[in-house]
Amino acid sequence: VSCSDSSVECTEQQLLKVYLRVRPFSKTELANNESQGCVVIENSESVLLQAPKDSCTMKNSEKGIGQSVHRFTFSHIFGPETTQREFFEGTMKCIVNDYLDGQNGLIFTYGVTNAGKTFTIQVKGTPKDGGILPRALDVIFGHIMGRQYQKMDLKPYLSSDVLKLDCLQAKQEELMKATVFATVKEQKQKRKKKKKKTCMNQNSLCKVNVQYAISLNRERGVDPKESIKFSVWVSFFEIYNEYVYDLLDALPTLKNQKRPGLRICEDQTGNSYVKDLKWINVCNAEEACKILKTGNKNRSLASTKMNRQSSRSHSIFSIRLLRIGDEQEILKVSELSLCDLAGSERCNKSQTFGDRLKEAGNINNSLLILGKCIAALRQSQNKMKQNYVPFRESKLTRLFQAFFCGRGKACMIVNINQCASTYDETLHVMKFSAVAKQVVQTIQVRTFDFLAPRQLGKDGNGKAIEKSKVSSSLSIDTPLSEEEEEEEEEEEEEVDVTILSYKELLCMIGNLKERLTEQRQNRLILEMEIRKEMGEAMFLQLMETEETWSKRLADLKETYEDKLESRFEMYKDAIKRHAYLCAMEEMENYVPLEEFEAEQRKVEERDKKIAELEAILKNLQIADTSSSLGSSALKVLESSEMFTSNAETGITLELKNRHAEKDQIITSFKSKNKELKKNLWEAGEIYQENIKEIERLKQEIVQQKQEFESLQKKQTSRVFELEATVAELQELLCASRKHSSVSEEVNQPKPKKGLFANLKSSVAGTPLKSIRQSVTNTPTTSRNR
Ligand SMILES: Nc1ncnc2c1ncn2[C@@H]1O[C@H](COP(=O)(O)OP(=O)(O)OP(=O)(O)O)[C@@H](O)[C@H]1O
C-alpha cells in the first residue's frame, strides 16, 4: 500500500483475484461418456488439464503443435463438491466487507456456456442454494439492519454521485418501484401455488441469512447503534448484441415495438455509467431478489444445443450503497456489480445459426476485447510503461474500465465443466484466465474525505437534474426507431455534457485533446499488436481448418475409392458379360490363332500348287497330266474345306475353355478373327479365280486337241499329195528314161525345154533318198495308207 497523503488518498496494488469453480457432471453427461478425466485438481491452487483423445488440442499435440497437458494456477480452486455457501465465503466475503466499508467491487463470471456461471451468481436450482448475489444481499442487509434510511429522496446519479429529490420526485420513485413490483405480482398471481412455496423458501432463506449476517457484523465489529444511515439502490441491465437494455423495463407488448436501448456516458471524472438506467430503492434482500427475478424474466435467454436456458447477454446487477450522515449529507457511495457474462462458446460447437450466430459473434467479440484489455493491462505492467488498453471498443469493457483503473476491486470467477466435448473451449477459457491472473490492480483506497460524492439537486445543479429527468422520461417512454438509434449512436458524446458547467467543459476538452494525442501515439503500437494477435489467431484457425479439411479430404478419398472400386467391378462384370455374349454370337466364325496359322500355311501350299498347275497348264502338250492335275487341285480344295469345318468344332470347345480366364485376349482374337475372315475371303476369291482358270485351261486343252487333229489331217492330206506327186514324178521319170534310151539309140541328145525340163532337172538335183526320208517322217498310218 502506498499513500501520498494518508488522510486523502492511498493506493493499493494487488494481483487480480481469479477463482476457478469446477462444476459437477450432470447425469446426462455421465451417460454420454463426458467424464474422461480432463480436469484434475492437484491442490487448492493448481489444476491440470489433460486433452481427451478427440479434442483439437490432442490432435495438434500429436502433430507437434502445443501440448496435451496444461497446468494452471488460480487464487483458489473450488472443486465440484463445493457448496454455494463455501464458495461465497471463499470468494466474496472479503469483497463484500470492503464494499460495506465504502470500496467498489466488481465480480464477473467467465466460462463456456453451461459451465455454471448463472448458477454461481444467481439462484438457479433451489432457492435455498442461492448463489453469491443473494448471499451478498443478505450480508449487506444484515450489515445495515436497523440503520436504513427510510426515505427515497436521495438517489444514485451518474457514476458515483447522489441526487437530492424533491417530494414529487421521491413519490415518482416510489411509483416506479411499485410498477416494477407489480409485474412480479402479476406473475405471482398466475402461479399462486408455486409462489407460496417459493416465498416460504425465501423467507426461511432470509431468516437463515440474516442470522448469518448478524454473525458477520459481529465479526467485523460493527456497532449497531452507529448513527450513519444507509440507503440501498439496485439496477439490473444487460448488454445484448452491443446494445444496453434496462432489464427493469417491461418488455414491449407489441410485436414490432423495439426495446429502448440505453447509452453509456462518462461523467466529469471520466467514469462510465449507463444513462437513464432505473435505480430502485430496496429495503431488504427479498425486495432485491424480486428485482433480480423481474430482470431475469426480461433477460435474453435462449435454448442452445449445449444449455436449455443459455444466457445470450452479459447481465450486470449493481447494488449502490449510500452512506448518509446525520444531516442527510452523503458520506460515501459504494457500488457492487455482479456480471454474469454470456457463454464463450464457439459457433460450430453450439450449432448456432441466424440470431444465435449473431449473438455468438457479439458475445465473442466483447469477450475478445475484454481479453485484449486484460492482456494490455498485463503488458503495461511488464514493460513498466503505459500501454493502450482498448476499453472503449466494447460496451462491456467501457463499463469495466473504472474497476481496472483503480475505482475498485475486481475479481474474476472462472467456471468450467469437465466435459470432454467442450475441452478445447475450456482450455481457451483457462488460458484467458491465466493472463487475467497476472494483472495487477491499482486500487485507490478511499478514505472518508477522498472523492466525496457530489450531492446534486437541492443544493447542486438543479437545471442539470431537470434536463436529465426530461431526457430520462423521453428515453423510457418513446422507443426509438432503428435509424434514430443509429443517428444517436453517431452523435453520441461520451460525456453527458448536460451536467457540465462551462469551465468543466473547457477542462474536459483539454483532457480529450490530451487523450487524443496519447491515443494517436498508441495507435501504431496497437496496430502492431493487433496484427500479431490476428496472425496468431489466424494461424490457429488455419491449423484447425486444415485439419478439418484434411480429415474431410481423407474421408472423401476413401468413399470415392470405394465407389470407384465397386464401379470398376461393375464395369468388369459388364465387359465380361458383353464379351461372352459377343463370343457366343461369333462362335461360328471364330478360329483360334494356331488354327488360323495352320490354315494360312495350307493356303500358301495351295497357292504353290496353283502356281504349279498353271505351269503345267502352260504345257499344252501334256493334256492328260494337266487334267489329272486339275482334278487333284480340286481335291485339295475340297479337303481344305473339310479341314476348316473340322477346325471350327475344335474352336468352339477351345473358346469355352479359355473364355473364363482370358478376357483380355478376346479383343485381340476379335481383330485376328477379322483378319482371318478377310484372309479366308481372299482365299475364297483366289479359289474362285483358280476354278475359273482351270475351266479356261480345260477349254484351251479341248481347243488345242481339235487343232492338233486338224493339223494331223492336213499333214496326212499333204503326204498323200506328195506321194501322188512322187508317183507322177516316178512315172514321168520312167517315161523319160524310156524316151532317153530310144533317142540315144537314134539321135543325138536333144536340149531341155519347158516345165517338164525344169522338173526333171530339179528331180535330178534332189536325191530320191531325201524325198523318201520326208515321207517316212509322216505317220505310219498315212504311210500305210
Ligand atoms: N456447482 C454446481 N452444482 C450443481 N449443478 C450445477 C453447478 N453449476 C451449474 N450447475 C447446473 O449446470 C447447468 C448449467 O448452469 P448455468 O445455466 O449456470 O450455466 P451458464 O454457464 O450460466 O450457461 P450460459 O452461459 O449458457 O448461460 C444448470 O442446470 C445448473 O443447475
TrEMBL record:
GO cellular component: mitotic spindle; nucleus; spindle microtubule
Subcellular location field: Cytoplasm, Cytoskeleton, Spindle
Stored InterPro entries: KIF11-like, Kinesin_motor_CS, Kinesin_motor_dom, Kinesin_motor_dom_sf, P-loop_NTPase
Record has Nuclease as a keyword: no
Keyword Transmembrane helix in annotation: no
GO molecular function per UniProt: ATP binding; microtubule binding; plus-end-directed microtubule motor activity
Protein name in UniProt: Kinesin-like protein
Spans annotated as Disordered: 462-493
Segments of skewed composition (Acidic residues): 480-493
Stretch forming the signal peptide: none
Superkingdom: Eukaryota
Keyword terms: ATP-binding, Coiled coil, Cytoplasm, Cytoskeleton, Microtubule, Motor protein, Nucleotide-binding, Phosphoprotein
Pfam families for the chain: Kinesin (PF00225)
GO biological process terms on file: microtubule-based movement; mitotic spindle assembly; spindle elongation
Coiled-coil segments: 502-529, 596-623, 687-714
Binding-site residues for ATP, renumbered to this chain: 111-118
Family note: Belongs to the TRAFAC class myosin-kinesin ATPase superfamily. Kinesin family.
Domain Kinesin motor: residue ranges: 15-439
